[in-house]
Amino acid sequence: MNDNDSTSSNLNCKLGMKSILPIFRCLNSLERNVEKCKIFTRSDKCKVVIEFLCRHGIRRTHNVCFQESQPLQVIFEKNMCSNTLVIQPRVLAEAIVLFTSSQEEVTLAVTPLSVCLKSSSDEPVDVTSSVYSEMFVGPDEFDFFQIGVDSEITFCFKELKGILTFSEATHAPIAIHFDFPGKPMALSIDDMLLEANFILATLADEPSRASSPQSLCLSPKQKRSEPLSSNSEAGKNVTSKAPECILRKVAPKRLYPKETLTDVSALENCGSPIMKRANGDRSEVSESSVSDTEEVPGSPYLRKFSCMFFGAVSSNRQERFNHPFDGLATASDSEEDMNDGSFSTF
Amino acid sequence: MPHWAPVNLPAAFLLHSVTPGVSNMIAKLAKTCTLRISPDKLNFILSDKVANGGVSMWCELEQENFFSEFQMEGVSAENNEIYLELTSENLSRALKTAQNARALKIKLTNKHFPCLTVSIELLSVSNSSRIVTHDIPVRVIPRKLWKDLREPTVPDADVSIYLPVLKTMKSIVEKMKNISNHLIIEANLNGELNLKIETELVCVTTHFKDLGNPPSASEDASQDRNPGQMAEVRIDIRRLLQFLAGQQVNPTKAVCNIVSNKIVHFDLLHEDVSLQYFIPAFS
């Protein structure tokens, strides 16, 4: 998006999906009729103008209002991951159909010899419990296969489905970069025209993985024009604290089941697990206790993924104890359509 | 990770021709059902409970028509059967992935919880083999409850008639559902069947003619009866609709047996699968 006004700075803004989608909806008719499309901004009027110059001298103009926004800077060096897989989206799509839509999460287990995609549901308790499914994919099905460390990561299934839909449109292979559980993973698509990076949180590996396997998932879509920037001091280290990054440890286990969550506040709209101060035991790695869905009334829970929370191992536990809500950004627009999980709300 | 361990009731079968059609049909007819495994047959059973509205179902398939290998061992030699309760949709979904399978295996296993494990070997586009496994949680039904799950006795019907095309029936009943909750199904030995709904404001009847009647089992009964006389049952329309919705394909044979004011019994044959569905009169 070019700013053709006098200021030469980049414009960071956000547009409603409901405004943009209908404009580009009918691809067939666009291809037939539109000769040129101009997109420019009128920052004095806070509008993005999309102009279609069509056949027969017809000009169609759409004015879409935008809001300034400051997207979160994601610090994640995908090339430093020990494990990298590149796969055709079609293969993943075949695996996806195995899992029911009620599955919230999926686990990817890799060894140098095999890759297994499986459901990470709880232990069954009765006949209405979810089916446990797993699919083994041989290394030869991958375009690129590099496993440095055996690993089993669990992440949000819904996000994976969304990313797949996106990648199937581009026909480009998906690269999956990851390390160990708890560390974020990246799914990236690198096409001629665009580069998309999806950074997802993964569940931290807990010795007693029992109840509420809730995870935080997010997917910032970043175009090539905005390279991933990092704080100078933090360098490329994912685990350090960066002021713009929200670092949070995702813990599947509830430490204090009796406590009810009172500080739901702004995070409720995001449907994200709430971070609580873990009283007492400071040597516990998992400080955040995660609520059960039932305790957060009205929480859309894992249905809305616009949160930009980003699970990673934080080295600075002490600070987080004292200021549990530091760095937690509030959801700005709760009425925004967050179902596609593709926009940050900050 | 769950640990694989054999159970007391081993049952392993290898499907050579996978027809997810049966499990799809069952999934539409009953949310939870009982799977009965015996040496020569598989049955899907729904017993008449209040929760189902008194509806019951008995679906039977000969195992030799579906499995190339079938091994089972029941509770004991005299009771060589296994009864499992499961969520029908779980099974139909699992079998759906097996549509282009090279091999399919179903096994009863116990890893923390009894499961029906479906192992599927798929041939992917790139010609490499892919193994998919689904563990469907099941409940093994104890022997003392088996008496509730016996094959229902077919009642002596007042009228037996062949059904019209089920798809047609379904679209009619769907429209009728908007007007009334109850439907009267009536038929006679002249091959006529009517679907009637009655409200204060309106009565709607759909007439089907020339359907034909199957030869009756007992000669006396049919001779006594006036062929034009209708036998009718008033039933809950939603039960009928649920039954019809489960029939995606028109069956090879479809018979409707009516016991006046008591019960309507549908007896269908879909190639190798027989289905009996009982809807009691609305009380």
Automatic annotation (TrEMBL), chain A:
Name of the protein: Cell cycle checkpoint control protein RAD9A
Q: Its Gene Ontology molecular function terms? A: double-stranded DNA 3'-5' DNA exonuclease activity
InterPro entries given for it? Rad9, Rad9/Ddc1
> Looking at the record's lineage, which domain of life comes first?
Eukaryota
Function of this protein? Component of the 9-1-1 cell-cycle checkpoint response complex that plays a major role in DNA repair. The 9-1-1 complex is recruited to DNA lesion upon damage by the RAD17-replication factor C (RFC) clamp loader complex. Acts then as a sliding clamp platform on DNA for several proteins involved in long-patch base excision repair (LP-BER).
| Biased segments, Polar residues type | 227-237
Q: Which GO terms describe its biological process?
A: cellular response to ionizing radiation; DNA repair; DNA replication checkpoint signaling; mitotic intra-S DNA damage checkpoint signaling
As for family, the record states: Belongs to the rad9 family.
Q: Which organism is it from?
A: Panthera pardus
The segments labelled Disordered in the record are: 209-237, 275-297, 327-346
Record localization: Nucleus
What single Pfam family name could you report for this chain, choosing any that match? Rad9
**One GO term of the cellular component aspect?**
checkpoint clamp complex
Q: What class of enzyme is it?
A: hydrolase
Main subcellular localisation: nucleus
Automatic annotation (TrEMBL), chain B:
Q: Which InterPro entries match?
A: DNA_clamp_sf (IPR046938), HUS1 (IPR016580), HUS1/Mec3 (IPR007150)
- Give me the Gene Ontology terms describing cellular component: checkpoint clamp complex; cytosol; nucleolus; site of double-strand break
Question: Which Pfam families did the record assign?
Answer: Hus1 (PF04005)
Q: Which GO terms describe its biological process?
A: double-strand break repair via homologous recombination; meiotic DNA integrity checkpoint signaling; mitotic DNA replication checkpoint signaling; mitotic intra-S DNA damage checkpoint signaling; nucleotide-excision repair; response to radiation; telomere maintenance
Q: Where in the cell is it found?
A: Cytoplasm, Cytosol; Nucleus
What are the protein's UniProt keywords?
Cytoplasm, DNA damage, Nucleus
Annotated coiled-coil positions are none
Q: Which family does it belong to?
A: Belongs to the HUS1 family.
Per its database record, what is this protein's job? Component of the 9-1-1 cell-cycle checkpoint response complex that plays a major role in DNA repair. The 9-1-1 complex is recruited to DNA lesion upon damage by the RAD17-replication factor C (RFC) clamp loader complex. Acts then as a sliding clamp platform on DNA for several proteins involved in long-patch base excision repair (LP-BER).
Q: What is the annotated quaternary arrangement, including any partners?
A: Component of the toroidal 9-1-1 (RAD9-RAD1-HUS1) complex, composed of RAD9A, RAD1 and HUS1. The 9-1-1 complex associates with LIG1, POLB, FEN1, RAD17, HDAC1, RPA1 and RPA2. The 9-1-1 complex associates with the RAD17-RFC complex. HUS1 interacts with POLB, HDAC1, FEN1, PCNA and RAD9B. HUS1 does not interact with RAD17. Interacts with DNAJC7.
Q: In its UniProt entry, what is this protein called? A: Checkpoint protein
From what organism does this protein derive?
A: Panthera pardus
